[in-house]
Design a protein that fits this description.
By secondary structure, the chain is mainly beta. The chain is 8% helix and 61% strand. It starts with a strand and ends with a strand. One of its GO terms (cellular component) is primosome complex.
Amino acid sequence: MKNQIAMTACIAELQALRYTPAGLPALDLKLEHESQQQEAGVQRQVKLVIKAVAFGALAERLARQALGSNWNFQGFLASPRNGKGVVFHIQDIQQD
C-alpha cells in the first residue's frame, strides 16, 4: 500500500523549532491549500488547513521560510500521538 501525498500549499503557521528527545530538529506547522478540482464532472472549490510536521534539516529549512509563502510539499499522512485527526509528515519541499 502507498501513502504518498503531494500538494501545493502556503505556510499558514509556524511553531518554534524544537528538538526530539534524540536531538533531532522538529517543526510543527499548519498549511493552507485552495484550488479548483474536478469531481464527478463538476468543478469544485477546495479549501483546507492541515497540521504538518517536518524533521531534521528540512525542519530547519522550513523554520526560516516566510508565512504565506507557497511550496510544493511531498510526504505522507499519519495519526498524531493522541490519535485524533491527521498530520501531514513533510519529506520534501520545492519552491512553488
